[in-house]
Amino acid sequence: MNARNLILVVAAVSAAAFAGCAKKGPPLSDSEVKAVFEKTLPATVEDRIWERVPLHPAKLLLQDVVEPRLMQASTSFVQVQSVTDGQKIVFRLAWNDPTVDDVPGPGQFADACAVQLPAATTADIPAPQMGEQGRPVEITYWSANFQAVVNGRKDDIQAIYPRASVDHYPFEAASLKPGSAAQQEMAKRYAPARSLGNQMAGPRTVPVQDLLAEGPGTIRPAEKTLSSGSGKHSRDGWSVLLVRPLPSGVQLGGRTQVAFAVWEGSHQEVGSRKMRSAWIPLALGKAR
Amino acid sequence: MSRVYNWQIGREMSYWYPEQRPKRQFAAVFDTNKCIACQTCTLACKTTWTSGKGQEYMLWNNVETKPYGFYPLGWDVNLLEKLGAQQWDGQRYSGRTIFEAAQPGERVMGWRPEEIDYAHPNVGEDDCVNGVEKGAHFSGVHLSWFFYLARICNHCSYPACLSSCPRGAIYKRPEDGIVLIDQGRCRGYQECVKACPYKKTFFNTMTGTSEKCIACFPKIESGIQPQCFVNCIGKIRFAGWISKPEAAKKDNPIDFLVHVKKVALPLFPQFGLEPNVYYIPPINVPREFLLQMFGPNVDAAIETYRNAPRDKDLSGLLTLFGSTELMVAKWKRVEEQVMGYDESGREIIRVPLREPTVIRQAFDSARGVARTNIS
């Protein structure tokens, strides 16, 4: 080996070593999700804190228990990290997804994810498939579609179909002052789901919904959505923060169970057609 | 899955829920022979119910030219192809319904239209089968044919939309059998859009929920026929209540047309939904096509319809179509007059079998002037 080649080999080995350093991710936690105590909760998916928070690769399974089922697996893992400040708990969910599906439409579905916790923390936990009658679970649901609206997409058909041309909406008649109470009231009448207060219909200030369920098909909105969150797509896929109050009956140093679900919009996943995990132990760190 | 009885296919079949019939069932008869595809029904519905944001593309009522018209594109042929051969043994359907043909993991055999499938609401309008060459003229048998098919939700006895909704957000009203999507409960999964073979549920992009024809239930509750019925200038539609075949009453107009005369037939009964809009089939269309679309009683229905001029009861009842905006619960013919009654038995309409003819003389001799059309 001449001197020139030797220099090249040394350079290559050094580069590999550096790359290894740079790629060194957070520590792994195989058996449980560890919610690390921090006085200040991370506000973004990019926060440096995540570099040292243990990561649990949660295995996702087909929802093939109740019809309509998902028959073909898509997302196989979701990488989960968690931080708590003793009041709230943050989950960072990241999964591979090359496509951004955040536009609603006929036959179009949004990328989404959810965190599920038993509503009551007892030794005997409800079924992981969205709880059981009389034994509810709490679900925080994030959707890429909600995120796009929170990020500024207008609540307008032209925001989805830029070339759409509409002759007239009755609630935009010249006799109605735009934005007036009368005009708003009339517009609501033409959006039945919105008039009934259905959360799906907006208006939307956070990209998440707090839900309760007592078994498959029973999802209902919680009295109020207390959670918040944010999601970001990159080359690697989605990274989503879900921030919610601590599960009831669980304090710092305590334990409960948690489950996750991911929907791949381009795979026509929606509702019960999803990839979901079993219950996974969730261990909250102690205050430092 | 439960076993339920579907009289339109003459046998029991599998359905997601047990048989539970409403106290009475909203139903309608459409006479395809009278439809001129003016789309007045479509606009009446559109302006009444779907003028909101996200509803722009929705047509709860539409009229399409068969065989080449569809809304959404290929709604019927896509499913017919998926379902495969559909065999009838006399009055009994021996093929599979869409509930029985459901693939593993599904509640119903369906297919999901894409956005683009809704982009041609009037595709195939007036396109007839075979070209009309120069010099072609009518010589007794129509070689070229098309017909207009007006469509609303069928408010089925076994709705596929209802059975497919994993949230139970779709319900059939016990008081009138009208099928509705609970706008407070729907989460926009679009399972109903996939399942409904008639593609009469629609996803609202702006509210994130699915919506459908509501049979103008506020009007029906007031004893008035829906918008698409009362605005039909061809007077092709008649709304009412249908009984089960064994309970059919001759003085119930829908029972008379569907069960007694058997002149009005369900649309694609082989799908298994027991749809409640009944069609008097078009008389000048090849029978094979009609057999596939309306089931095995097409020949008899057309013969009965052709005989209507000699059947005073049938022609009499047909004259009640479009004669009143009220719901006619009972009817009766006395000699040359036909009467319609409401629920309480009050007469609400009286129509002569034949309108009297009055000839106005061209010259008004009293005034010494020639009459014009406006005088």
Describe the structure.
The complex is a heterodimer of chains A (288) and B (375). In chain A, strands 1, 2, 3, 4, 5, 6, 7, 8, 9, 10, 11, 12, 13 and 14 form a 14-stranded mixed β-sheet that branches. Chain A contains 5 helices and 14 strands. Chain A is of the alpha+beta class and 288 residues long. Chain A folds into 2 domains: 25-155 and 205-284, Immunoglobulin-like (Sandwich), CATH 2.60.40.1190; 160-202, no CATH class. Chain A has helices spanning 3-23, 144-150, 157-160, 181-189, 192-195, and strands at residues 33-37, 56-59, 61-62, 77-84, 88-95, 112-118, 137-143, 208-213, 220-221, 228-234, 237-245, 255-263, 275-276, 280-284. In chain A, strand 10 and strand 11 (237-245) form a beta hairpin. The radius of gyration of chain A is 23 Å and the shape is globular. Helix content of chain B is 19%, strand content 21%. Chain B contains 10 helices and 19 strands. In chain B, the strands form 8 sheets. Chain B has a 4-stranded mixed β-sheet with strand order 12-3-14-13. In chain B, strands 15-16-17 form a 3-stranded antiparallel β-sheet, with helices on one face. The longest helix of chain B is centred in the N-terminal third of the chain and has 10 residues, at 40-49. With 375 residues, chain B is an alpha+beta fold. Chain B is globular. In chain B, a hairpin with a 2-residue loop joins strand 15 (330-334) and strand 16 (337-341). The chains are: A alpha+beta (288), B alpha+beta (375). The interface between A and B is large, with 45 and 40 residues.
